[in-house]
Amino acid sequence: MNVVSGSETVPPDHLIKKHSSLIRNGLIELPTLKYGIPLAMGNFRWTAELILTTYEQANTGLPPTSGLEYKVGVSGGGFDVLDFKMKSEPLPDDELEKAIDLSISLNKQGIGRKIDIPLPVYGGGMSLGSVSLNFMLARAIAAQYLKTFTSTGEGGYPEELVPYKDHIITQVATGLFGVREETIQRAPVVEFKYAQGAKPGLGGHLLADKVTAAVARMRESVPFTSLYSPSPFHSVYSVEDHRKHVDWIKTVNPRALVSVKVSTPKDVDMVAIGIYYAGAHIIHLDGSYGGTGAAPEISKKNIAMPIEFAIPIVHKFLESEGVRDEIVLIASGGIRTAHDVAKAIALGADGCVIGTAEAIAVGCTHCGNCERGRGCQVGITTTDPELSEYIHPEWGARRIINLYRSWCIQWRRILSALELKSIRELRGQTDFLVYKKKRRKRLNF
Question: What is the rounded CA–CA span in Å between residue 63 and residue 50?
Fold first, then answer.
């Protein structure tokens, strides 16, 4: 349908190009501080400075030089009050790429498919419906280029992602939306999502406004009807039941690695050892800080354990059981920066899953309107066909790739200053971490 403006009829594609251009120019201009720091941007964890420096890194592929804070927020806790106790000055950047190894393995069992990724992160689950197809494609293209992975989330496996199948994790969640034999068979990694750190015990919820015909077709449901995932798998009430699920995946796709995503309850160590004995390859801990703007505030702030507490608990318990080197521990839920990733690994994780930082790289302003079909003004968490066009997949992929290029430089600098040769040597080295004095909060809202 055409849009009438005065005496002229403006085609929607013209408006799309116009708004896309404005968004892209804004992402270049804002980090320069030409217009200052936006007063309404950010919160205590994702401050305006962190958002702007994420834009800057996505622009340049290099660590920020604007003078803004790009390592921590001002929450007064968690990763924001941890710092590294460096041993020496890092080597020059041009010497570090060959000197420092950032790769990690996703299979430590000694049997089955061996998968290594060249950097210690991969993309978290964001489903069709929660985000636009163009954003999913941007993440898939970036994952293929970086030789890592991204995840479909629990909303099914769009056919448009098939060309990138070697870098796509498919998720099996409690609603079983879009789960089919062929989607499991094409995936190198299959992830069971038992819980999400931002809303443990609540299940997923996609409001009717976002359930368009395309989303409903993928999820095998009715358009414009709210969708709920059950809070548990009703077929799993014990480790033995969980093992049946893992065996099911291994039967359908013997080459797939199995990841299990759980939240962080107080007995998270018992949950983790149960995952190990069920035969999974990856324990994915999702802490309370993550999730989109669609997650209820009451659950994000009051239920799950913060990820920086959960990681060392699980790491040390697996060590005490003598199985730590037989399973991969991946952390997510509020991992915002390269320094957050390094701190999580120093606490005991093997690597991290990234979600929100990738969205911010392509223009997210952290406005918190993710649950609305037309709530995202930059086309990320929208199902509106016109708004979705604001993100061109190739453009979005370039920005995500640039963000990770900057992070790789920062990780190498950290490891060099700690006199380590690989990111794997950092795992569990809590002696490299120190509490720092709380700095005065800088807020812009």
Answer: 12
